[in-house]
Amino acid sequence: MEPERFAKEIHLIAEFLIISDDGTTYCLKADSNMIATSGLGGAACTGQPAYGRATNRRAPRKAIYIDGTTFRTVTTPVFTATDYAALTVGTDTLSIHVPGETAAVTYTLKKKVPEKVPSTVIGRQDPDHA
Fold it and tell me: In the predicted model, what is the mean pLDDT of residues 67-75?
């Protein structure tokens, strides 16, 4: 007897426009399902430079949602500072289809993570005593 097969979720990764806190625009790779989610501010990318890989020093702003029943979390980028400011922890929700479930699961916003931008440190400036 062959095991029952479940339909796999298809995640299409594409580049979307993200506007940094300083106003610079980049293309950020993200799941295409996030672009359709209202409140995250995604739009199609039109030739801006790539954001690149997130590191410990540089990362886009994010929203972390949690399912109160299973405690599973979903982390999504938030593409504009305006949409980030409009999110309310404990109130905003995200509806996501989970493989094997018939209905979408509602996740509630647990945490907002601000954008990380590396700072520059200017070395000691000694006056010229010529």
Answer: 89
